[in-house]
Amino acid sequence: MRCLFLCLLIVCSFHIKSAELYSGAPAAASDYAFLIGHWQCRYEQLDPQGKTLFSAPCRWQAEYAFDHKMVVDDFSLLDEQGKVTYAGRTLRTFSLQDKRWHQVFLPVQMNATLNPFTAHRDKEGVHLEVEQRLPNGELQPARFRFSQISNRGFVWVSSKQLEGGGKWYVDMRIRATRDGE
């Protein structure tokens, strides 16, 4: 009887804790509200001086999952005929413990390590940080930012450090426009 009581107590306390954590979407769920929808984009890869090395069309689409507690978004890089040449999915969730966004990106059919990103939003946009694993196994810090956010579009940039550390430069940029705009 005592064992049954303890089991019920554990199950009930887990249920109460779960109800607190999962009862509704946190206010921060709106941080990525701008991303929800379908986007036509232009991807650019840049050198340290800002010169475009490569440019291609892309698509980005995002939706809420789990009653607005997560954002799931898919990115596809296209060739000029519209065929997908690179794609991946990002899962984003707001942590009630540390009050930051946590996310992972998984590319399609590529070697990948699920390096977790953390992010926060301020008046300038959404700022993300990660240490990316390079093909040689080394970790390289990277920064990403969503800015110029409006109902009609946004700009996403990736920044990395120059060799030797210190200065950062924008190495990738995506300009997105909402489908139908």
CATH superfamily: Calycin beta-barrel core domain
Overall structural class, as computed from helix and strand content, comes to mainly beta
Element order, helices and strands? HEEEEEEEEEE
CATH class: Mainly Beta
**Overall pLDDT level:** 82
What general outline do the C-alpha atoms trace?
A: globular
> Would you give the CATH topology?
Lipocalin
Sheet of most strands: 10 strands, antiparallel, barrel
| SS strand fraction | over 45%
Strands, count: 10
Distance between the termini: 66 Å
Radius of gyration: 20 Å
Overall tally of domains: 1
Helical content band: 10-25%
Strand order of the largest sheet: 1-2-3-4-5-6-7-8-9-10
Question: Could you characterize the architecture of this molecule?
Answer:
By secondary structure, the protein is mainly beta. The chain has a single domain (29-178), classed as Calycin beta-barrel core domain (Lipocalin). It is 12% helix and 52% strand. It has one helix at 2-22, and strands at residues 37-46, 52-65, 70-78, 84-94, 101-107, 117-122, 125-133, 139-147, 153-161, 168-178. Strand 6 and strand 7 form a beta hairpin. The protein is globular and about 45 Å long.
